[in-house]
Amino acid sequence: MPLRRTGNLCYTTARDDGNVGDIMNIRTIQAKSILTPQKRGFLTAGEQPYTHSLSWATGCQFGKLYCGAFCYAQMLPNWHFARREGEAWGDALIIKENAAELLAAELARTRDRRAMRIFMSPVTDPYQPIERKLRLTRRCLEVFARYEDLDLLLIQTRGPAVADDFDLIAGISYAWLGMTIETDQGDLPYGPSQSHVERRLEAVERAVERGLRVQIAVSPCLPYSDIFAERILETGAQRIVIDTFAIGDGSRGRRTANSPFAALADYDWRNDDIAESLYHQLNIHHDGVAWSGAGFAGIPGRQKPAAIEPSPRDLAL
Ligand code: SF4
Predict the structure, then answer these.
(1) What pLDDT was estimated at residue 187?
(2) Which residue's CA is minimally distant from atom 5 of ligand 1?
(3) Closest-CA residue to 177 (of 244, 105, 249, 236)
């Protein structure tokens, strides 16, 4: 297994099934709440903002994989308050073991569920390896399945294991699957393995065949091959959102510049041209192509009609 080291961090590009739970510090807690209201920031940056996020863990089992090198969740206060001294991103996972029970209680007492637009999960991955053991995401989905009246649930993941729950997701009328696919090239020193790229593309195809609504998140957009746009289009995903390091990191590139990724990258990650080029290639053939934060917070819900997606140029003005 090839390893890439930067300082005291260690990343693998080959074993991105994330089967690293046995070397992580895993702790469980009884949390007091599970839905976090969203007032500002990335999840509210569009015409159809999220009202809440849902993360059943602090930390992520994918934290030592390539995406851990640029993961912004490791820069947020909830991680810094939850970790123990000396724990780096990917060293620990703090699990809210009562997540499903809290969700059931919080949905039951919410008066206007029709306005709820929930992003699961912005600071961890709902289909990291331990999900197969704990089934916390599945138990949360079973809670959502009891309600018909929310506006949106986006299940955002890099994990093809989401296929385990396709039947359950298909039964939630307001659910979308968000699959992150940053590139179709598996040989980059700072990206996913080729097998994981293929498994994610296949998972999207299967999800669409199963009748799910799917948004592919090319986020952040990494260098890609000449056929990436074609491969995305072939999946049949209903929406595609493209994001970049310089725009999508919420600090005009400062966070990325301070991340281990900046030392690994062998190209100008500040230049958005490759992402804009992919946007335009896709936009010719697909009317559900969206850009950056406005695109993430632009999935049409039941309460508001779909807005016209702003292009990268519109958003730059
Ligand atoms: S899967 Fe997401 S939350 Fe987990 S390390 Fe990668 S970018 Fe961060």
Answers:
(1) 85
(2) 63
(3) 236
Is 64 within the bounds of a domain?
no
Q: Let me know how many helices (H) and strands (E) the chain has, helices first.
A: 13, 13
- Asked if the structure places residue 86 within a domain, the reply is no
Pairing of strands 57-58, 175-180: unpaired
Of the candidates 6, 244, 34, 41, the residue with the CA atom closest to the CA atom of residue 144: 34
Of all helices (H) and strands (E), which one includes residue 93? strand 92-96
User: 48 vs 91, 151, 208, 309, CA distance in Å?
Assistant: 35, 10, 23, 11
Ligand 1 nearest atom to the CA of residue 89, by list position: 5
CB distance 194 to 201 below 8 Å: no
Ligand 1 centre distance from Cα of residue 289 (Å): 23
| Rounded Cα distance, 216 and 236, in Å | 10
Assign residue 255 the CATH number of its domain: 3.80.30.30
Residue 69 falls within a domain, yes or no?
Answer: no
| 122 CA: nearest ligand 1 atom | 3
Ligand 1 centre to CA of 158 (Å) is 8
Residues lining ligand 1, CB < 6 A?
Answer: 60, 62-63, 67-68, 71, 73, 124-125, 158
- pTM, rounded to two decimals: 0.91
Helix axis angle, 99-109 to 136-144, nearest 10°: 20
Q: Residue 10 in contact with residue 187, Cβ under 8 Å?
A: no
**Given this model, what pLDDT does residue 307 score?**
64
The answer to whether position 85 is within a domain reads no
Q: Which residues of the chain have pLDDT under 70?
A: 1-22, 303-309, 313-317
Domain that holds residue 124: 3-19+33-54+97-316
Query: How many separate domains does the chain show?
Result: 1
Q: From CA 43, how far away is CA 116, in angstroms rounded? A: 13
